[in-house]
Amino acid sequence: MDANIVKRNELLAQKVIKGLRSRNMNGYYAASRQEALAQALTLIPEESSVTMGGGMSVHEIGLPEALKQGNYRYIDRNAMEDKRAAMLAAFDADVFLSSVNAMTEDGELVNIDGNANRVAAIAYGPRKVIFIVGMNKICCDLDGAMKRARSVAAPVNALRVGVGTPCTKTGTCMNCKAPDTICCQFLITRFSRFAGRIHVILVNDELGF
């Protein structure tokens, strides 16, 4: 990565971390995927129950594999026959892992969900929520973050899961009401009521969609 881009990301990350702090959330900057993985593991005590939504960024830094190999109670919903039970287990988990569809420079987190299990667990339940966020997800303001979530992240995720929504044909949000839309629930996290619950690891890399 170009040295000037790296420097810009470092400077921007500090602004985002300051914004998160003002919202009672914790922020960290990782210069690489490897540093992000190491930082995440410092936030997850051994023997913790850990689960996640469908965050591609979490997989891209290798966190699920590290949890499976370590002394953790990792709840892998992909390995469970009862998907609903796996999703409900998140509400009583020690740690929930996720990414964001977009976030603002001032520390607001934007997420869109179809089943709503991910946004529900972000909002309430798990004792700790850890976000893995590539610097490509940072937007100037909330309007920009909402646009990114709807017109960048959502169409790619719709293609990934194989639904037939209009955005899979046009590449951008059509504000649809298709039966299989993945844009059912919108969550904006602007403040954490509980100190020490939400942690955001900003990664100097392009992660997720």
Key phrases:
single chain; 209 residues; alpha/beta; Rossmann fold; six-stranded parallel sheet; four-stranded mixed sheet; 8 helices; 10 strands; 38% helix; globular
What does this 3D model show about the protein?
- The chain has helices spanning 3-22, 33-42, 56-60, 63-69, 83-89, 117-123, 142-161, 167-170, and strands spanning 26-30, 49-52, 73-74, 95-98, 102-104, 109-113, 128-134, 138-139, 185-189, 198-203.
- The chain is 38% helix and 21% strand.
- It is of the alpha/beta class.
- The chain has a single domain, classed as 3-Layer(aba) Sandwich (Rossmann fold), CATH 3.40.50.
User: Which architecture name does CATH use?
Assistant: 3-Layer(aba) Sandwich
Q: Please give the order of strands in the largest beta sheet.
A: 1-10-7-4-2-3
Report strand %. Answer: 15-25%
Radius of gyration: 16 Å
**What is the overall pLDDT average?**
96
N→C terminal distance: 19 Å
- The dominant shape is globular
Kindly report the CATH topology.
Rossmann fold
- What are the secondary-structure elements, in order, as H or E? HEHEHHEHEEEHEEHHEE
Mind telling me the CATH superfamily name?
NagB/RpiA/CoA transferase-like
In total, the number of strands is 10
Helix content: 25-40%
The CATH class assignment is: Alpha Beta
Low-confidence segments: none
Structural class label: alpha/beta
Whole-number total of structural domains: 1
Main sheet specs = 6 strands, parallel
Number of helical regions: 8
